Amino acid sequence: MPERFSALGGPCAPDRAENVAICGGGRVAAVYSPVDLAEGVPPAAAEVIHEEAAPPFSRSLVIAIEGERLWIKMVTCGTCRRVTGWAFVGDLDRMSDEGLGGLAQRLRLPADTPPLRTSADWRSFVHGRQLLRPPPT
């Protein structure tokens, strides 16, 4: 597990790092990070289920699955002085519908997208889809 995401699965606590985004059942269910600080995402052992790049600005998206663990790497500007975007790792079986909805919103998925609760849901949803949307204006 990359150091930036080491809180995953640990106890939720008020003094937890700012990148802990979602707690479920008293445990950290998901962690976000700026993409340029997220080394090793997704890990080599994860199955990449979606990969896409779109100009301009070298935008890219990688979605990977490792069991019921979801890894996402979204680069919004790969040619900027500081690479921008975000990275995410979450345990789908611990994430709430609210947490899954926030992730869908961050990915700018259609509003009527049902919560993608399992790795099978993610595989089915991303199959054959273009997920990178033009940047908001």
Q: Can you tell me about this structure?
A:
By secondary structure, this protein is mainly beta. The chain has one domain. Helices cover 13% and strands 34% of the residues. It contains two helices and six strands, in the order ββββββαα. A six-stranded antiparallel β-sheet has the order 1-2-6-5-4-3, covered by helices on one side. Strand 4 and strand 5 (69-77) form a beta hairpin. The N and C termini lie far apart (36 Å). The mean pLDDT is 88.
Order of helices and strands: EEEEEEHH
Shape: globular
By secondary-structure content and strand pairing, the structural class works out as: mainly beta
Q: Structurally, how many domains make up the residues?
A: 1
Radius of gyration, whole Å: 14 Å
Read across the widest sheet, the strand sequence of neighbours is 1-2-6-5-4-3
Question: Strand-residue fraction?
Answer: 25-35%
DSSP helix count?
2
Mean pLDDT: 88
Task: Give the proportion of residues in helices.
Answer: 10-25%
Keywords:
137 residues; mainly beta; six-stranded antiparallel sheet; 6 strands
Task: Detail the topology: elements first, then pairings.
Layout: E1 20-24, E2 27-34, E3 47-54, E4 59-66, E5 69-77, E6 84-91, H1 97-106, H2 119-126
Antiparallel strand pairs: 1-2, 2-6, 3-4, 4-5, 5-6
Put the structure in a nutshell:
The chain is mainly beta and 137 residues long. It has helices at residues 97-106, 119-126; strands spanning 20-24, 27-34, 47-54, 59-66, 69-77, 84-91.
